[in-house]
Design a protein that fits this description.
mainly beta, four-stranded antiparallel β-sheet, 4% helix, Rieske Iron-sulfur Protein, three-stranded antiparallel β-sheet
């Protein structure tokens, strides 16, 4: 049986230059992602509020929660789960790894 890392296609997002607690918007293929460094653990979510399509990466980020700047919907970064109204649908999450100082994401 193949290892999961062997079957996933990884996209290079650039250098692992975010400090713990920082986030930014990145492009990965045709997707816009929000990339986070949570105390050394990296996460990527789709950079879209499921309530109205707003860009999550421009919102405030505290702990593990990103808040959409448009209407205040909140999402848990590690799981993508919608935490409060007006959003009820989770945002997509993507596997992330760091190799040789570069951040890689699987879009599969």
């Amino acid at each position: 049986m193949a290892d999961a890392n062997e079957t996933e296609k990884w996209t290079d997002l650039g250098p692992a230059d975010l400090l713990p607690g920082e986030h930014k918007s990145v492009e990965a293929g045709w997707r816009n992602l929000a990339l986070f460094n949570l105390n050394g653990t990296w996460h990527a979510i789709e950079d879209v509020c499921t309530h109205d399509g707003g860009e999550l990466s421009t919102g405030s980020f505290e702990g593990t929660t990103i808040t959409c700047p448009r209407h205040g919907a909140q999402f848990d970064v590690p799981t993508g789960k919608a935490l409060c109204f007006p959003a009820v649908t989770p945002t997509a999450v993507f596997p992330v790894r760091v190799e040789n100082g570069r951040v890689l994401v699987s879009l599969d």
